[in-house]
Amino acid sequence: MSFLFPAKSLTKYNIANKEIIVIGEEHTNKTNTDTANVILTWDFITQKMKEGYGINVELAPDFHKNADKIMKHIHSVNIRKTLQKIKKMNKIKQVNGMDFRRRGDFFGLFGNSNIQAYFFNKSSELNDVNIWQFLVVIDNIMVFVNKHFYNSNIKDLILHINKDFLDQLAGHHQNVDKHSRALKQIIQRDSKGKPKGFVYKFKDINPLLKQAKYPFNINKIVDDYRDFVLIFSDLITLVEMLHKKEKKQLLLIGDAHAKNLNYFLKNYIQYPYIHPKMSSKERKLAGSEIKGKKHTVYIKFLK
Q: Kind of pairing, strands 9-15 and 269-271?
């Protein structure tokens, strides 16, 4: 069959002698599309598992302890049905959770698994989030990046893959470090006039920024934090997959992450590629969502 459903993109890379298939998805429960003549994403993934691929999904690294709850409530039909099928194969422990942002010292600090989504979606609920605790999360990510990406053997691997990956990470890192230092100073100065134990939330910050004449508002600051965490997340995911024992890896991830990886890994793409039997139309369609057929990706000629 020539179509994968439901998905937004599919790209295959060959990096450091490893084959990596990345499926970009929209996190949705909706599948109300004609599914005739398609390969369902969860069937595609379980078949790849049978072929010896390591399977990686956008879940916390320790998701296994809550797998049954996740399968009931997760807002992704692809992840839910993939886990359900692999559980029936008694291989769910072989699935790797690759959302390292959810680590206990990162967004896992909040105890509320929705906080990360509030942050990335810039939803209204972010207004009531403790901004000081958020700054601790960002500090911990920056410490991790300093230790593992700038001053270790991993740096050589990243530079070998694409120097721009590390350069952009460092640029975003500098931006958020500047924001965090300023926010801490502004909050600490203002807190002297507040009752002990006062909790600063995101909604409290814009008036303080104006008062301090800081050149950015909270929306711009959040955008900069998101850019940093996004590139950090994608980089650590790539590094982790390259260190897995299986030579073939498959990653199911949100399409924004898939696009970000595509930007940095263009030189390693194996699919889509130009096949001698491809028409000019097929070359444009390959690996992408078909216009007019939501969540349907053209995968003809995928080897």
A: antiparallel
| Angle, alpha carbons 168-173-174 (nearest 5°) | 105
In degrees, rounded to 5, the angle at the alpha carbon of residue 237 between the alpha carbons of residues 232 and 242 is 130
Question: What is residue 297's three-state secondary structure?
Answer: strand
CA 275 – CA 272 distance, rounded (Å) = 9
**pTM for the model:** 0.93
Phi, psi (rounded to 5 degrees) for 289: -70, 135
Q: What is the pLDDT of residues 40-65, one digit of tens each?
A: 999 999 999 999 999 999 999 999 99
CA dist 159 and 267 (Å) reads 14
The residue extents of the domains of the chain are 1-53+59-97+248-303, 101-245
Query: Poorest-confidence range of 101-115, 198-212, 266-280?
Result: 266-280
Q: How many helices (H) and strands (E) does the chain have?
A: 11, 10
